[in-house]
């Protein structure tokens, strides 16, 4: 796999060669920064999960103020609570579709 930056540096060009010799060119916005390390996965405590699940059972959606209050009480960021609820709603839809 070869990699090079375009002259205007807004696009990163990656060329991938397959085993059969064919070549694909991918143009990726440079802002994506594929080489930066990933953020570590959040591990929730049992107490945090219990309170998040209770809040989800009460309402699958939280207002911004309620979410901020819950996040503060659990020692989590607002974004962590928001993403947890998004993932939990997705899980619920998957369970209901079976």
Automatic annotation (TrEMBL):
<dbReference type="GO" id="GO:0003677">
    <property type="term" value="F:DNA binding"/>
</dbReference>
<dbReference type="InterPro" id="IPR001356">
    <property type="entry name" value="HD"/>
</dbReference>
<dbReference type="InterPro" id="IPR050848">
    <property type="entry name" value="Homeobox_TF"/>
</dbReference>
<feature type="DNA-binding region" description="Homeobox">
    <location>
        <begin position="37"/>
        <end position="96"/>
    </location>
</feature>
<dbReference type="InterPro" id="IPR009057">
    <property type="entry name" value="Homeodomain-like_sf"/>
</dbReference>
<keyword id="KW-0539">Nucleus</keyword>
<keyword id="KW-0238">DNA-binding</keyword>
<dbReference type="GO" id="GO:0000981">
    <property type="term" value="F:DNA-binding transcription factor activity, RNA polymerase II-specific"/>
</dbReference>
<dbReference type="InterPro" id="IPR017970">
    <property type="entry name" value="Homeobox_CS"/>
</dbReference>
<dbReference type="InterPro" id="IPR000047">
    <property type="entry name" value="HTH_motif"/>
</dbReference>
<keyword id="KW-0371">Homeobox</keyword>
<dbReference type="InterPro" id="IPR020479">
    <property type="entry name" value="HD_metazoa"/>
</dbReference>
<protein>
    <recommendedName>
        <fullName>Homeobox domain-containing protein</fullName>
    </recommendedName>
</protein>
<feature type="domain" description="Homeobox">
    <location>
        <begin position="35"/>
        <end position="95"/>
    </location>
</feature>
<dbReference type="Pfam" id="PF00046">
    <property type="entry name" value="Homeodomain"/>
</dbReference>
<dbReference type="GO" id="GO:0005634">
    <property type="term" value="C:nucleus"/>
</dbReference>
């Amino acid at each position: 796999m070869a990699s090079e930056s375009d002259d205007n540096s807004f696009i990163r060009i990656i060329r991938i060669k397959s085993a059969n010799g064919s070549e694909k060119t991918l143009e990726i916005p440079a802002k994506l920064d594929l080489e930066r390390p990933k953020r570590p996965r959040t591990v929730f405590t049992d107490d945090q999960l219990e309170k998040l699940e209770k809040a989800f059972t009460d309402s699958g959606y939280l207002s911004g103020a309620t979410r901020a209050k819950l996040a503060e009480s659990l020692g989590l960021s607002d974004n962590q609570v928001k993403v947890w609820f998004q993932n939990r709603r997705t899980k619920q839809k998957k369970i209901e579709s079976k």
